[in-house]
Amino acid sequence: MRSQTFVGLAVAFTARTVHAGFGLTSTGNSYRVDTNGGLVFDVSKTNGDITSLQYNGVQYQGTSKMSALNSGLGTSTVTAETINGYVKITVAAKSQPVTHYFVSKANDPTIYMGTYITGEINPGELRWLARLRRSVVPNGWHGDVANLDGCTAFEGKDTFKCPNGQTRCKMYTSDRFIDDQVHGVTGNNVAVWMIMPGVAYETSSGGPFMRDINSQSGDDQELYWYMNSGHVRTEPWRFGLMGPYAMRFTTGAKPSGDLDTSFFESLSIQGYVPASKRGSVSGTATGVPSTFQTVLHWYNNASQYWAIASPNGGNYTSPLMKPGTYTMKMYRGEYPVAQDTVTITAGGKTSKNIASTDPNPSVMWRIGNFDGQPFELKNGDKIERMHPSDVRMGTWGGSYTVGKSTQKEFPMALFSKQGGTATVTFKLSKEQAASDNAVLRVGTTLSFKGGRPSVKIGSWTGKDPGAPKLIDSRGVTRGAYRGYGEVYTWKVPAGTLREGDNTLTLGVFGSGDAAFLSANYIVDAIELQGPKGADSP
Fold this sequence. Notes:
By secondary structure, the protein is an all-beta fold. The chain is built from one helix and 38 strands. InterPro entries: Carb-bd-like_fold, Gal_mutarotase_sf_dom, Galactose-bd-like_sf, GH-type_carb-bd, RG-lyase_II, RG-lyase_III, Rhamnogalacturonase_B, RhgB_N.
């Protein structure tokens, strides 16, 4: 191994915009890496912040705050070396259980990174945050959903109302982890991208449907990758190596998420597990209609992985996984329909078939789909990118008539102090009304402040099911819809249902604060189980 190491060594360096070739140099306060691919960046010897990002001769680093993990790691031991033709900078924080790595290779305008943690990081989240000059990369992810220009904070310090009645929040830039391999910010003939290839998420928490901030357009253009956070947190943090992941500069084109990081094996990166020490599982996943995505999810206390099965036949192959025993879940969309366990060995290829065990009872009528998502319901197509009070939103609460109304007429969320209740009018035949086995089933995807359904049909009122497990984080107002996914059922007493017209009223048990911060829940689907009739799905 050929290695050259700098540890706080001062070497005279003259700033330049014409590249002199790939390599590492040292100035009084920083290490400088020239990728010979158009990107030159500086890393502070004191705290590991990136203090300069020059691409094709233009400075992209913001001026007020630097690019770093979280808001900076503080005093750190920072070392730099060249190993086997790669530049590696190691930042070992002195007051946090974290070691961060920057890696560069010749002719590649990419900063490869890995973040190794042995405990939770203050202040309870772990993110890479590049603070860029907005004058050169003005455009955030998902358009203007986090463009704060002229807008005023009205809920906490992160959710803003604009003069035109629209709302903004950095949470609205998020995408599901399973979908988010590449996201970025752009300008005129330039873009800066975060790339999370392969198993970059394996040590993060939250599973395939977790979402978190990707960008915010304020004084700086902020580009994020969240590894762990308290935003709608549903499981404990995992510890170990986050990544490898990367930040790449381009002249505008979006890069592939299929990024080779196998060279990390030769760089002594803590926690890195090469392909040769991993295994996989493959098989068939059946029982989910082709109109839904079939998602496989493997997890234990140390790692998490996922894959999407083929819609034709349900064939799947997992990513290369660390050895261990995993819980294996299958989802219809985001709704769990089967569970098993599987053991992975180094170099092994395991076979495992899995099939839906979700019951398929007779149903009188149904609103929505039990798929763990509210998108087909009223305002569901907007909730990821705007606040419920946004001027572009439809009304909340309202009335729905089975057999006449469309799914878009039923609200995707109900609030205890905003929008009122939702009523469902439905007709039953004599046989259906006489059934003594009717069951009302309400699926939810996320609860806030203990919100859960209250139900009433005629003179019968369903029992309060009790508050669900608390997630201490704003949800629907910041674009989140995914939590623990509680499903509630009530047996409807004989004599409650009537031949002809019936009315179900849904409200909210719980109080909370005012308006949209009152107790609430997001609706997945609602069905009345019993003998089939004219309105059965």
